Amino acid sequence: MLPDLSGEEICVEIRKKSRVPIIMLTAKIEESDLLTGLNIGADDYITKPFSLKELYARIEAVLRRSSDDLVPLYNKTSFNHGDLEVEFESHTVKKKRVEINLTPHEFKLLAALIKYPNRVFTREDLIKAAFGDEFEGYDRTVDSHIKNLRQKIESDPRSPVYILTIFGIGYKFGGALNEV
């Protein structure tokens, strides 16, 4: 039992802004409590007492399930006061409310960057996040896709605000999220 907010309230607040994996560790053993926890956004629910081996196995399972998912927190996201809009289910991207066409590779790269907006990706990390193990090509191919993507989504590709180069490391997403 937490002093100021309940675990359920904390879970709800986290889910409003993040997909971070959540495992509830609780003394509440009723089925209704378990169902409530899972329905409000917990990825797993463990009742006390539990073994550390079980906890470790459940953490590993939750991380395995969450690490490859390129679906962001919201199906539709808007950045910089509507300047850039992305709808993930329909693979639609709009710049200043005008739809732009991205190749499948460009869309996957953009989706990977948006899912982890503060993460700096090396080329190899970005390939793995966007394309997985089936990518066959050179890591420098990412640079070409990023250049083309910038031409399509940036107002000034020479001074990008969405896809930022972190010199000597790689790339990161820099757009300011607006909830849609």
Give the structure's gist in a few sentences.
This protein is α+β, with helices and mostly antiparallel strands. The chain has helices at 7-17, 31-39, 52-67, 104-115, 123-131, 141-153, and strands at 23-26, 44-47, 76-79, 84-87, 92-95, 98-100, 163-166, 170-173, 177-178.
Characterize the structure shown.
With 180 residues, this protein is of the alpha+beta class. It has two domains: 7-67, Response regulator (Rossmann fold, 3-Layer(aba) Sandwich); 76-178, Orthogonal Bundle (Arc Repressor Mutant, subunit A), CATH 1.10.10. It is 39% helix and 18% strand. The chain has helices at 7-17, 31-39, 52-67, 104-115, 123-131, 141-153; strands at residues 23-26, 44-47, 76-79, 84-87, 92-95, 98-100, 163-166, 170-173, 177-178. The strands form three sheets. The chain has a five-stranded antiparallel beta sheet with strand order 6-5-4-3-9, with no helix packed on it. The protein has a two-stranded parallel sheet with strand order 1-2. A hairpin with a 3-residue loop joins strand 7 (163-166) and strand 8 (170-173). Helix 4 (104-115) packs across helix 5 (123-131) and helix 4 crosses helix 6. It is elongated, with a radius of gyration of 19 Å. The mean pLDDT is 87.
Proportion of residues in extended strands:
15-25%
CATH superfamily of the largest domain: Winged helix-like DNA-binding domain superfamily/Winged helix DNA-binding domain
Number of helices: 6
Strand arrangement within the widest β-sheet reads: 6-5-4-3-9
Residues in helices, as a percent range: 25-40%
Write the layout of secondary structure elements.
Layout: H1 7-17, E1 23-26, H2 31-39, E2 44-47, H3 52-67, E3 76-79, E4 84-87, E5 92-95, E6 98-100, H4 104-115, H5 123-131, H6 141-153, E7 163-166, E8 170-173, E9 177-178
Helix pairs in contact: 4-5, 4-6
